[in-house]
């Protein structure tokens, strides 16, 4: 007759009896695991929120875009997106290139406030306007008015109609709250600045592009242009991400160590109380592995139910504590499933490590325990 079911029923009965007699032991393990995992979840969510906020700030400020300013050599044509003799034309194959000319005279909004004015080729203007808009319509980048409105402006005391547009991320690289794009005016280019906005494709380095641009002018023995290179900000983001990886690894190791120490110490204390019953079962033929596995399953049950509760608790805490970051929603779990997987690995690694001292205790000969 197979005695395994009877042994399993006895072990389950012994477990529930022990929990009822000493509820503080399982509750302490469950509660401490819950607190540790919830704190770790909030900790990781804070790192994720900081990274997301920094990335959003970079995109909002256009810091993924290189801006080059140099005195204009020739007038910007209407049809061509950049001058025919442009030194920057080869860059159009490596990313998004936009060529403007900053005009020395400002435009004026309906309230007679000056607006920086730029000349832009017709293809550039057309890309910002709906298809039904008249060709050559000016574009007013502003956040003070809803997008899509036609507003009357003046330039050189001449009225013109401009369509309002919300500034996109790369346009923020100009560092202006409001500005106007006009069709290229004729006349002398004295006082104009060529302004190039270049957003590289994935895999291209802004620092390398900035060095390449400077090399163009050095080779021609001309004064270097004013280059607005956001690479230092991007390097700061990369350093933040690298530090976060180190902190996350250290936190997971600390989490596993704390759980292993806590479960191991409590397990050894309980082993002293259940030593006689375990030795009696071993004398009846129950293997050490089954007794070891029963203790492991008990700790797995406590740890993983606490982990699941920790997921919910950390989501609630992170939504409240990180609400000012504007990247955490109360309805969205603050961490990606992969990060919760690593937390689960850390918790269960600690549980597994906590069972090894019990394995050594079970190797004690039965004759040393039973009278």
UniProtKB/TrEMBL annotation:
Membrane-crossing residue ranges in chain numbering: 27-50, 250-269, 300-319, 339-358
Keywords from the UniProt entry: Membrane, Transmembrane, Transmembrane helix
The protein, known as: Uncharacterized protein
